[in-house]
Amino acid sequence: MPELPGLMKGLGVTLRTMLKPAVTTQYPRVKEAPPTRARGVIALKEENCTVCMLCARQCPDWCIYIEGHKTKAPPRRPGGKPRTVQLLDRFDIDYSLCMYCGICVEVCPFDALFWSPEYEYSEPRIADLLHDKERLGEWMDGVPEPEPLEAGAQAGKR
Amino acid sequence: MSSVDPDGREEPDAEGQAPSADDIDDPGLQSEIANPADSNQPTGSSAAPGEGTTAADDEPVPAPGAPGELSSDQTPSQGQERGGSASPAADDVAQVPGGDAGSPDTTAPAATAPAAGAPASGTDSAVVPEQPPPTPTAAVREGAAAERSRADKAARADEVAEVVDSAETPEVDEAAGRLLDTLRSALGDDLQQTHVAHGRELWARVSVDAWRRTAEVCRDELGLTYFCFLSAIDWMPSPYGRSEEPAAGDENADDAEQGGDEESPAAIEHGYAGGETRFQLFARLMAPVTSVGLILKADLPDDDLRAPSLVGVYAGADWHEREAWEMYGITFDGHPNLIHLYLPGAFEGNPLRKDFPLLSREVKPWPGLVDVEAMPGEGDGS
Amino acid sequence: MSAVPQNQQRAYVTGQAADARVNVELETDGMTLNIGPQHPATHGTLRIITRLDGEQVISAEPVMGYMHRGYEKLVEVRTYPQVTTLINRIDWLGSFANEVPFILAAEQLMEIEAPPRAQWIRTVLFEMSRIANITLFLGDMGVQLGAITAVFYAFRDREHVLNQIEAATGGRFHPNYDRIGGLKEDLPKGWVAETKSAMDKVRRFCDEMETLLLGNEIFETRARGIGVIPPEIALSYGLSGANLRASGVDWDLRRDSPNPLAWSEVDWKVWTHPDGDSFARYWVRLQETREAAHIVDQLLDGLPSGPIMAKVPRIIKVPAGEAWVSTENPLGEMGYYVVSKGDLGPFRVKIRTPSFNNISIVPWVMKGVYVPDVITILASLYFILGDIDR
Q1: Each residue's pLDDT tens digit, A66-77
Q2: ipTM value of the model?
C-alpha cells in the first residue's frame, strides 16, 4: 500500500483551514483594541509639568522641545510667601523622530507624561507630526488605568 | 542527532559561576580607573534640574524648530581619509616603522625569554619583589617576566592599563589556562600582554607582525576554529563628547568637557591587555561546543595603519576586514578585495574614528538645555 | 563532525566540478544577473550581483549598506539606558533577544545580577521572540520555493506571539523592556495563561508546517542537497545558530556558555542535522520553534515570585572595563563587545550580528549552483537585513 503523497496531506491542511472562519480584522471598519500597555502615543498632563527638562535631556532622539517661564503663584497657605513656579510655554514632541522607547515617560518625576494606546494619528505630511502641548493633552483622555500584575509579582513596585 | 546531556550541562555552569566571585576587577582598582573619567563628566543627566537652570540662562539657545534633516551619512569634507588610497610603494616603507615599533619586543625580553615559560604554572612569588610600586602586594600573573620589560615602559606611559594587568592572579579556568600556556609557548615574545576576567574570558595582545601567525596558532593548535568577529577600536577620547554640552566657544565650555586631557595623547587609556597606540585591532576566536574563546588585540602604529589579513586563515574575516578598513582606515595586506562594504564608494573619511563628527548631533542644538525665561526681577547675569 | 552523507558528498563534488569547469570554459561570455535590492527573496534590501554561465552561477557577490544605520557610532553618543531602544532595531523580528546580551554585558561590568524572576521572564520573552522570528522563516521559505500558503499561516500564528509580547512589554516589535538590573515592569495579570494558549497554537502551527512543507515532494526536491555547507567551512566563516547546527555542529550557546538566564533550569534539547543543506536548515529551525514553545511552557510553570529589579543606582554609570557577552539569538550568535570608561555611555560597542557572518558565506556556497537555487539558499540561510547592516 503506497503512502499518501505529501502533496495530498498538505492539501488536507489547507482544506481544514478553509473551513475555519477568517482571522483578519477589517481595519478601518473593525478596530482591534490594543493592550493596556501598548505604547501608542505620549500624552501630556500639562498641570503636572514643572519644566524640569528631564525628559528632553534623556530623550535618545532629541525630539522633545520644551520652553517655559517663571512666574509667581499664590502661596499654598494664607499668609505665606508667593511661590515661584515654572510655567510651560511650549511642549512639542516630534513624532517623526520619536522611537517610542518610553524613556521620557519613565524619567518624569512629576507624572506629567503617560502612554496612551491611541494609534490613529498619522499625517500625510511628515512636518505635521510635530505635536504641541494642546494635542498631547487631548490624548490624556485615552490613558488607561494601570492593570493589575500577574501572580508572583512583588506588590508596591512599579 | 544529538541530545543534551543533563550532566554535561550542569558542569560548565557550575564552573562558570564559581570564579566570578574573585574577579580580577577589584572595586578599588576600578574606582582608580574610573576617577580620571569622572572628573570630566558631562553634566548631562546627572545635573539636577535646579542646577542646570543657571548654567544656560546666560545665553538662551533658540528653540530648535525644525527636526534635524541631516543624517550621519552626510560627510564633512575631512582630511582624515587615509589608507583607502595607499599606494603599493607604501608597503616597502611599512617595514621600517613596523620593525621599529617591534624592536623593544625583540631585543629587550630576549634575556627573559626562557623565564617566560617557566612561571606558567603559577609560581608567582618569585617575581613579586620586582613589581613596580603601584601594586606592591599584587602577585604577578603567569608569564609576567616576558611582559615586565615592556610593562615597565608602559607603566610610565600608561599606568592604568598596567595596574589592571598586574593585579592579583585570578582563578583561571582550566581550559582557559591551558589555552594561555599554549599561546605563550607558541608565540614567545610576540605575545605582549594578557588579561583574564571571570576566570575564563581571555584577552591577549600580540604584536601586529604576529597577527596572522597568532590566528594560525589559534586555529591549528588551540582548536579555535570558529571565527566570531574582527574589528578595531580608536582609543582616543572623542573631541565631541555626546554633544550635549554647550557648543565650543560658549563661556561654559571650560566647565563642561573641554578639559585639558582631551587634546594631549596622554589621555588615551587602553582597556584590558593594555596597549600603546591609538588604534587597536581586535578579534574574537572561539572553540565550538566548549565555547572557550579568546579576544586578540594588536596595536597598530599611528603612522602606519596596516595589518596582515586573516582571510587565508579564517574565510569569514573577509567582510569584517572590509568593514574595519572603511570604518577606521586600516589596510589589510593580502586581502583579496578590499572595497567598501557599507558606505558608498565616494565616501570620504572613516566614520568610526573618534574624530569623525556625528553630523546629526552637530547640526542640531541639544533640546535638553534648560531654557526657562527668567523672571523680570532676576538679572540676566545671575 | 559526522561523516558526510552520500547525497551531500555528491552535491559537494558536483559543486567543485562545476567550479573547475567554469574556470576552464571561461572564454564564453557570461551574463551578469542582478538580484535585488528589492527582490522579495532578499527580505529587505540585499543586492546580489551574480555572474552566470548559462544557468549556473560563476560568482555571487552580495552588496550591502542600503540599510546601514551606523549603530556602532550612534551608540557612542548615547547613555546605557538609551542604547536598548536602538539595538531593538537590529534584528527587528526578534527584537527582545537583541536587548539581552547588551544588558547582560552592562550588568557584568557593573557586577549586578538581576533577580531570578527577572531572569526567568527574560528567558520567556527571549524564546518568544525566537518563535516570532523563526515562524516567519518557516512560512517564508515556502514562498521562496513556490508554496504561497505557508506564509499566510505564518503571519496568522505569529500574531498570537506578538500580541503576548505587546501585552507584557507595550511594544510589538520594539519591546525595550530590559533594564540594567532587571525589567521595566512585571507581567500583567492573566498573561501566563494566555501565553500558554499561544504556545499551543505555535505547536499546532509547527505540525501544520511539517505536513505542508516537510512532507511535500516538491519542497524536498528543491531543498535537499542544495547549498551544502560542510561544518569546517561553516565554522571558518563564523556561521552560527541553526545554520551551523544544520551542518551537524552540536553547539548552542544557551546550553554551552555560562549565562544567568534560566535555560539551565528547564529540560530541552539541541537539535542538529547532519546534512548541511537547505532542507536541514529548515528542519532544524522547525524543531527549534517547537523546542522554544516547550521551553516557554516549562518556564511559565516554574516562574519564581519576587522582585524584578535589583538595586541599581538612579544614574547608571558603568565602571571602566571591557565585556563580551553573546547569546544564542534566533538567527545565531549575537554579541556585544562593550568598552566602558566609567562614563554614562559606552566608549565603544562592537555589535556582532549573526546574519553578517551567516551571509558572508554566500560567495562560497553559491558557486556553481543553478539560478533558482540561489533563492533557495538565500531563504534557507535566513537573514534579516537590519541584522547584516546594523
Answers
A1: 888 777 777 777
A2: 0.82
